[in-house]
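FIELD: query
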Amino acid sequence: MQGLLDLLTGGGGEGNPFAVIFNLLFFVFIIFSIFYGQRIQQFMWLKQIERALVKLNIWSEEGKIICKRRVAEYSDAPDEQVFETIDGFLEFFLIMPVDRDPSGVLGRLEHLLDVRKTRFEDFVSRVAPKANEADSKTLENVIEATIAVFFIFRLIRHFLLLGKKTKSTFLIMQIYMQLPLIMIFAKAYFEALKCFAEGKPIGDGVGPLVAARLMRGGEPKEVAKEVVAVEKNINNRNVIIVKAKGPGGTVGKPGLGVKNVIDEREGKVARVIMIDAALKFEGEETGQVIEGVGAAIGDPGPEKHKIEESGVKYNIPIDAIIIKQSIEDALTTMKKSIATSVDNVLKRIHWIIDNQTNEGDTVIVAGIGNTLGVGQ
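FIELD: result
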């Protein structure tokens, strides 16, 4: 007893009473933290996740309203019927193909993606029969973004309730640690939803914008589903510019388009130049243009594989020009710094054509990305 008293008073039997109280509270706090510190930490993490979930719910509900009102503009059915139909479609999903046997996995994946695309097209034509081709593609994008925001909300709600149910510190901590990044993606998709609804070009459309600039004055022809090409003479080279068919929101099948152009010319193509948006590292400048090699296209695999396969088959060099931007920049209204980078990209394309090909050569220039608001 005397030893504890000496510890609390700092060694003297008649210590300062305030020091005794302070030291006593300190020891109580230490003991309390040992037994209840983890629960307090869980409580704080759960509160942070709950606040984020409220925000996600707001974005999800606002997104649904924007989507429903936009679709209802092209329907003769009562608004309530349209809204109910859309609600029933917002949990539409895709089951990825088996990858344990990799043989033919890209073909199976492409088939599933084509079926999914067809389902979206059929759904839009059913709920918005008055929409033209461009508007239908844009509505598909609106629904896609709505599904994405709604899915993120459902996912976080699932893990929040599961964490509360199991009281698993590890599970709650995982969600809490990833929450900032998840919220960035959710906000980007929500902002993209609004851009799609308004038909504004987005940052990811910089590739098609470059292609559209090169296409000026040419007569576009369809070379694949939702993909057009224009053939022009640039510095005595036969340049074929490929992009998704605008101004509706679509990325098309550019890989198939490039492959068809190469096959049509029996592989007599000197070079393929691809332009696309790419995610920048934090601290890097938005709109910065850099060069590399390879198929610059961010699809799940089938389109990229077609271009790479054609390049290998006919020994065609593939150049890549990318415009750096964040995920928010790529999915929201195109920033001035991204739009002004087009001139820099065009200069680099002309340099490659002049210095790495010969007169009379055939060159393919492919602008990859969502062509929302960008015509031919």
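FIELD: remark
The mean pLDDT is 89.
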